[in-house]
């Protein structure tokens, strides 16, 4: 049975872009004869708030969307993510990094990164590998001392381990096609953060496997991340879903809707008297 999911982060209220993604996932699941699950991606303890979780449930119910229970909350599964991380560490596919973002920016600006790429697909400075070959004894001492660190994927080692060419199946209303992937453009990406034993990348591939998701439908802003996700799936021997990356909702100025930009929320629209039927019609789901 096809299984899809809508997976918002509770770090703000939902806006029209979220509504489009939620409605598209629900519509595709219905047309395929499958189900759509809700997942709360709350691995960020500083930004994830209970009120925002309640708001997500309220907004989705207002749109007429219901989901099977129980709903998966990522914050309740840290032990599982730690196990996946330790798998990669034990195989020397991940290493601790003690560099701050400021230090990375300085090294990149000084020309420490060779080649044509200086940024990853999200525009962040491409990590120059400073901690990749650290002295094991010194690294162990720093960890024992409690020095803050992230864990990074050694992408070169990971690509050697995974072996085969990377890619995934993309789908849309016209059918399916094979898409090549280039995980190396992310460099040695962070797969576990300073305060939690995972990152978005590690948690999402783990959860898609646990929930047996067959089709991942999400915004085009996450299309490049799929390159990294298929590599992690290969390393952890996880099944690979099919992917669809939909267009993003934009404001009158052409900027994508975003919580960080204070885009008008569904709660704002509801308070202004806009109906769920009007939202559905506006987004093409009348």
Automatic annotation (TrEMBL):
PROSITE patterns: AA_TRNA_LIGASE_I (PS00178). Keywords: Aminoacyl-tRNA synthetase, ATP-binding, Ligase, Metal-binding, Nucleotide-binding, Protein biosynthesis, Zinc. SUPFAM superfamilies: Nucleotidylyl transferase (SSF52374). It is an enzyme of class 6 (ligase). GO terms for molecular function: ligase activity. Coiled coil: none annotated. It comes from the Bacteria. The gene is gluQRS. This is tRNA glutamyl-Q(34) synthetase GluQRS. The keyword Nucleotidyltransferase does not apply. Its EC number is 6.1.1.-. Belongs to the class-I aminoacyl-tRNA synthetase family. Residues 3-281 form the Glutamyl/glutaminyl-tRNA synthetase class Ib catalytic domain. NCBIfam families: PRK05710.1-4 (NF004315).
């Amino acid at each position: 049975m096809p299984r899809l999911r809508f997976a918002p982060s509770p770090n703000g209220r939902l806006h029209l872009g979220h509504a489009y993604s939620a409605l598209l996932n629900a519509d595709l699941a219905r047309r395929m004869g499958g189900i759509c699950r809700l997942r709360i991606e709350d691995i960020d303890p500083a930004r994830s708030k209970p009120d925002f979780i309640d708001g997500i449930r309220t907004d989705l119910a207002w749109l007429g969307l219901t989901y099977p229970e129980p709903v998966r909350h990522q914050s309740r599964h840290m032990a599982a993510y730690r196990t996946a991380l330790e798998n990669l560490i034990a195989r020397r596919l991940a290493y601790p990094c003690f560099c701050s973002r400021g230090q990375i920016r300085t090294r990149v600006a000084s020309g420490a990164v060779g080649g044509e790429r200086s940024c990853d697909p999200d525009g962040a400075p491409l990590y120059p590998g400073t901690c990749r070959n650290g002295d094991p004894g010194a690294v162990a001492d720093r960890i024992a001392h409690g020095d803050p660190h992230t864990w990074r994927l050694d992408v070169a080692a990971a690509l050697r381990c995974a072996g085969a060419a990377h890619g995934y199946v993309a789908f849309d209303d016209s059918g399916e096609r094979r898409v090549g992937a280039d995980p190396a453009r992310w460099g040695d990406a962070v797969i576990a953060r300073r305060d939690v034993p995972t990152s978005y990348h590690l948690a999402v591939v783990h959860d898609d496997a646990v929930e047996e998701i067959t089709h991942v439908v999400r915004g085009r802003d996450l299309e490049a991340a799929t390159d990294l996700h298929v590599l992690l799936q290969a390393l952890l021997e996880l099944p690979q879903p099919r992917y669809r990356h939909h267009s993003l909702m934009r404001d009158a100025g052409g900027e994508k809707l975003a919580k960080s930009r204070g885009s008008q929320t569904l709660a704002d629209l509801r308070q202004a008297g806009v109906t769920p039927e009007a939202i559905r019609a506006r987004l093409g789901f009348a």
